[in-house]
Amino acid sequence: MPHNSRKPHKKTRTGCTQCKGRRIKCDETKPACVNCVRYHVQCSYVQTFPTTIRPLSSAPNTPSSSSAPSPALSNSQSIPAAPPSLASEIKDLELLHFYTTTTALSLSNLPDRKHIWQWVIPQLAFSHHCLMHGILAISAFHLARVQPARKEQLLTEASQQHASALSLFRSETQDINPSNCEACFAFSSLLVVDAWSSSGGNGDLFFTSSDYSDQTSVEWVTLIRGVYHLLLSSWSWVESGPLQPLMKLLPDDAPPPSDLNTEEKTRFDSLTSICEPTNDICVEEAHALKEAVSLLRTTYAQMIALDPRISDAGMILSWTIQVPELYLRMVRRRQPPSLVVLAHYALLLHMLEDKYCTYFSSHYLLLYIFLQSIHLDTCCMSNC
Q1: Residue pLDDT, tens place only, 189-228
Q2: Alpha-carbon span 291 to 368, nearest angstrom
Q3: Contact, 357 vs 309, CB < 8 A?
Q4: Centroid of chain to Cα 38
Q5: CA-based torsion, 317, 319, 324, 329: positive or negative
Q6: What is the pLDDT at residue 217?
Q7: H-type helices in the chain, by residue range?
Q8: pLDDT at position 130, please?
C-alpha cells in the first residue's frame, strides 16, 4: 500500500522541544502540550510553567464594606464577569465539586472504597498538590464525557492538570516516606485512569505510536507496572493506614474461583493450545504465554463468581501487573499468539465499559489488534 503523507499544516517556531525533535505539530498547550501528555513525555513547557495549585485566597485585598447590600445585587443589573484569577479558582472548584459528588463514586463498586475516594483522598490532596492536580484532571476527563458541548475546553484543562500532576509526582517519588506514601499511592491509582483517559482509548494502551517510537514514550501498561514497582518499598506503610482497603483485590474469606462453564473451558483450552513452542516461539516465550493465559483464566473465574466484595476494576487491571515481562515484549513485537491472548483480555475490559467514568474502551483495543493481524498477514503474503 502507498504511504499516506501527513496533512500539511502551518509551521510554528514556538512548539515544545519534544514535538520539534519528532517533527510533529505541537498545539502549544501549557503547561504541557497534548502530544507530550498523551504519551507521558516530559514537555519542555512544564519547566517554564508554575505547577502549584492556584490558591483560593489570591484575590486582592479590598477595604471592608458596610453591611449594606451591594448595588450590583440590589438592582436588576447583570453581575460583571469574574476577573481571570477568580475564574480560574471557580473552574477548580467546579472540578473538585464534580469529583466529590460524582467521579469519586464511580471509581469503585465497593461502598468502603467509595468512601475513601470521596472523603479520605481529597483530604490528602490538600497537603499534596500532585494528588490535587490528579483529582482535578480525572474530574475534567469525566465532566468532558458528561458535557459534550464543553468537551474540547475540558480535555485541555484535564491535560494541563495531568501534566502538572506528573511533574510534581516525579518530585515526590524521589523520596517516598511515611509522610507522602499515601498520597503517592492514591495518585498512582488515579494515574492509571488518567493515562487511559488521556489516550482516548486507542493503541497507546499496549502499543506505542510510531510518532513516538524513539523509546521515550510509555505505553499505559508499562506505566502501571513501573508505578507499582516504584511503590513496593512503601507498601507496608500504606497497608497500615486509611487506604488499606484499596490494596486488597479479594476479601480474606473469599471463596476459591468458580468453575468455568463448558463454553468458557473450551475457549481457554483452545487458547492454551497456541502456547506451545514452534519455529516462531521459543520455550521461554511459550512459558510466558501459558502464564498469561493461566492468570487470565483465574481472573475470568473470579469475575463470574459475582462476589460483591470483589473490586472488579482492580481484579481486571491487576492482570497487566502480574503477566510476565516477556509476554509484554511479545505483544510489542506483535507476535500473533500474544495478540490472541490480548484480545481475550479486551473482552474482560468490556465488563468495565459504561460502569466507570473512564474510557475503558475494549473495542478500540480489539480493533487495533485486528488491524495488526491484517498487517501481519499482508507482510507474510508479500514475502511469499
Answers
A1: 887 777 666 655 444 566 655 443 334 344 667 777 877 7
A2: 23
A3: no
A4: 10
A5: negative
A6: 42
A7: 17-22, 34-38, 71-74, 84-98, 111-115, 121-125, 129-146, 151-172, 181-199, 220-231, 235-239, 262-273, 283-304, 312-317, 319-322, 325-332, 336-349, 362-383
A8: 93
